Amino acid sequence: MQYELVVIGGGPAGLAAALEARKEGIAKIVILERDKELGGILQQCIHNGFGLHQFKEELTGPEYAGRFIEMVQKEGIEYKLGAMVVSVNGEKEIAYVNAEDGLVTLQAKAIVLAMGCRERPRGALSIPGPRPAGIFTAGTAQRFVNMEGKMIGKRVVILGSGDIGLIMARRMTLEGAKVEVVAELMPYSGGLTRNIVQCLEDFNIPLKLSHTVTEIHGTDRVTGVTIAKVDANRKSIHGTQVTYECDTLLLSVGLVPENELSEQAGVEMSRVTAGPIVNESMATSIEGIFACGNVVHVHDLVDFVTKESQRAGAAAARYIQKRLTVSGESIHTEPKHGVRYVIPNTIDLSNVGESIELFMRVTDIFRDVKLVAMQDGKVIREVTKKHLAPGEMEKLVIPIKNILSTGGEITVMVKEA
Predict the structure, then answer these.
(1) Which residues contact 352 (CB under 8 A, 6 or more apart)?
(2) CA atoms of 139 and 396, how far apart (whole Å)
(3) pLDDT score, position 206
(4) Sign of CA dihedral 314, 320, 324, 328
């Protein structure tokens, strides 16, 4: 079966990419979504705070997703639900399976990878102790409580201070549970500042930085966990152990881009983000395959996912229409002091308008500093920042006139103000 564009993933990234491609004139599009409904993770995020950039109003996750689903249906964009993609290759052949169609192979002119990300499970952590019931990733707990209507516990300890963990601390409290503590291995929180305030401080839930779970107690069900302070090497410090009685342990220890299909297709991957290496058009190393959203790098705001995915959808459309410029000359971006990564990884100036947006995360908490982009030893953009944190994505807009087309790589770093 032939399609102009196949979008893998029907979450906010896939929906935005498909809609933008349709706006650019692409008629034969299909979205493949493995869940039973479109919208992705937003369907279980019933808290507000979405859409402030995109719609200039505050929406819940399902409301935000609902607006895009409605637009997709209005545009008549085809989508397949319960469709598990089992293979993708560099020739842009996609195989998926669902109950309705069985095993189907599609041929596309272009592909947008929008599979999102997944949580790190307990198996990825080195926590000694038995394996009783009552241990959940924060996202799984969120689905049980918000979508299945099931209460997972009464006394809760949360390991990790990512946004989902912070939001679930508030959610469990509102449902009548007692959240004993949130323990974070790093000396800073991995979540947005607003979530630390609204989800922990407003409910008097303690946050212990530089702490981790060292032991889980219980046989059939969790009866308690022991946490301890860690040193600079993240090793537990003897004598700092404290045991909390609880029946539930939630894990919010990071998200990993869902990239098995990307790797299967032969896409070049970044060891830092664990996502595809992309250029200014969100194009990967395989011609005609684009990537966007949390499959590239984990975002903090869905509004940014939408904007990035619109760029990917528009570029995929231009590629199909043979309008996407490929000059063959790319400028690489490189993270330096204090910056963990920069997206896009390469820039073809022939596809850039008046400016280019660089997205990044920093490695530590910084105060009263400058975020600086340099090329050939010259500052091409700098912005003063009162506060930078690893849990919050940063953006640097560089006017195209500042960039030397014949220059070397663009380095981005944190400097003292």
Answers:
(1) 280, 400
(2) 30
(3) 97
(4) positive
Amino acid code (one letter) for 80: K
Give dist(CA 271, CA 273) in Å, integer. Answer: 6
User: Among 7, 3, 79, 4, which Cα is nearest to 291's?
Assistant: 7
Does this model's pTM top 0.70? My answer is: yes
pLDDT in tens, 199-237: 999 999 999 999 999 999 999 999 999 999 999 999 999
Question: Would the pLDDT of 347 be above 90?
Answer: yes
Q: Supply the DSSP string of 295-364, one letter for each residue.
A: GTS--S-HHHHHHHHHHHHHHHHHHHTT-----S--EEEEE-TTEEEEESSEE-GGG--SEEEEEEEESS
31-40, 98-107, 124-133, 197-206, range with the lowest pLDDT: 124-133
Long-range interactions of 49-54: CB distance < 8 A, separation 24+: 49/194, 50/302, 50/303, 51/302, 51/303, 52/303, 53/301, 53/303, 53/304, 53/307, 54/302, 54/303, 54/306, 54/307
pLDDT for the residue numbered 322: 94
278: phi then psi, degrees, rounded to nearest 5? -130, 160
Task: Compute the distance between CA of residue 110 and CA of residue 140 in angstroms, rounded to an integer.
Answer: 33
Q: Which of 160, 167, 157 is nearest to 195 (CA)?
A: 167
In this model, does residue 417 exceed pLDDT 90? Answer: no
Count of CB atoms situated within 10 Å of the CB of 118: 15
Structure tokens at 57: 């109003």
**Domains in the chain with CATH codes:** 1-119+255-324 (3.50.50.60), 121-253 (3.50.50.60), 329-417 (2.60.40)
